[in-house]
Task: structure prediction
Amino acid sequence: MPNSAKFWDKTAEKYSKSPIKNMDAYNQTMDRAKAHLSKEDCVLEVGCGTGSTALLLADSVKHITASDISGKMVEIAQSKAIDQGIKNADFVQADVFSDALVPGSFDVITAFNLLHLVEDLPAVMRRINVLLKPGGLLISKTPCVGQQTRLWSIPLYVVNKLKVLPYVGCFNFDALERMISDAGFDILEAVKFSGSAINRFVVAKKT
Result:
């Protein structure tokens, strides 16, 4: 985790200035996410990056807490919130296991482009379940590299073993949904948006 944090600290400025590659898929993701949110919701975003998505969703919820392991990413996100005058969003440097996140305190947890980057996804899913209130929702979009071809598993195995870059998991849609279900969730929605062959949008309810 510390090595990943350092990597994202170094790339934070460049990341914040990079344009979204597939704007149509991003807009579809945001529209579907907002359809499951309400003005009464207290939301946690894990892996918020430089905060653009959290700030975009802020007007659809009561409050959003956005977390990231990179302190530099969080600094940029905080600056964006100030510049945009958004008062119901705060940003914290933390991973999902941080003691700063109180169990049973969130109506919704979002995870966009994150779940493939965690080494122990089943443990992360169980922790997300713990952080949610009864009946709370997980809203996620995840690149599932294994959906495209199993050939990716070999180079990813080598890269992960050498630890020269942050970890990247290789699994397909079925494996992702199985891990979510096994952590105590009922899947309400699972879709692939147009122009996004390996990304899976999943909404799941804590059982």
Strands lie at 42-46, 63-68, 89-93, 106-112, 132-143, 185-191, 199-206. The longest strand covers residues 132-143. The radius of gyration is 16 Å.
